Fold:
Amino acid sequence: MEEKLQQVCQAFCIEGAFQSYEEIKVGNVNRTYKVNYLRPDGRPKSYIIQAVNTFVFKKPVEVMENIDKVTEYIHAKQPQRTVLHFHHTPDRKIYLFDDNGFWRLFNYIPSTTYNTCSDLEVVRSAGEAFGEFQMLLADFDAQQLYVTIPDFHDTRKRYQKLLADVAEDPMGMAAQVAEEVEWLKSVQEQACRLTDLYEAGQLPLRVTHNDTKLNNVLMDRKSGEGVCVIDLDTVMPGLSINDFGDSIRFGANHCAEDEKDLSKVNFDLSLFEVYTQGFLEGANGALTQAELDYLPWGAKLMTLECGIRFLTDYLEGDHYFRTHREGQNLDRCRTQFKLVADMENQWEAMKAVVDKYRPN
Ligand code: GN1
Ligand code: MG
Structure:
């Protein structure tokens, strides 16, 4: 691996002497490495190299074009803001496509990230960072972006795929998940509500991040403030509500996404509250009344949809999300469904939180 990473650094014209590397084992899709260099002037400098998963991202060049457009736009609007800075090859490309894969390299930003967090201020800051992302891109025409993964949040299509897999049952797993599938069928109509509202023209198409997990905001080590939103692979046209919801499913809970003990998985209303507060402050009035009305729906339905995706992958033999143990995708699915049930129990309180912080 070391040799390959050095080769990638050379391709992106990194100067100095290679010192060491480490794999950063977060993320279910791409592979990420930190490489440490000593620059010609003697100063240490680190970079992040990623091998983009081309099974998931079938058009990686379009992914990079989307990222480039969005980061350039933010940089032009607020030059002082930290954004990901991708290095170029001598032929001015921000990627390298070779026999071993699709590579990109960007500056390492000293910071920290959280996979789970109980610190209300950190969760509020993450909400603010993603709210600002909405605010900064509110006047960017989302149609300029490629749809790099078609139907990413088309819940109806996610259902169709799951139910087809249940019928076909390629790995012989369907009997084990009969209870989950029955429940999903019973809530199908409400689960597709946001997809339907968008199709009816009631929600605006926006630039969305589509992977707004807590660990996709780099945080300042001392102040706990958000420094930079990362993992822009899934930046696409989409619904702001889904970005909000994806953060809640991941962040408003004290457990890992694949926790086996469901009694530990609980939706935490106080985390929901601070995230909502931060998100709406960051968005600074960029959201419509309809978007604000449906924020709790975003939380519930993104959680449900993510559960469907994990379950689908489980039935298909774990080809999409990286797994490290058997049954991991089923565990991931079950945590999501447990969170949905918790949210239903706290539904009125969730709506009251949004009403407390929504701009008048
Ligand atoms: C994947 O690999 P990572 O962690 O950035 C997935 C997201 C899911 C997430 C669940 C392109 O993101 O949509 O919400 O796993 N990314 C893609 O943890 O499908
Ligand atoms: Mg991602």
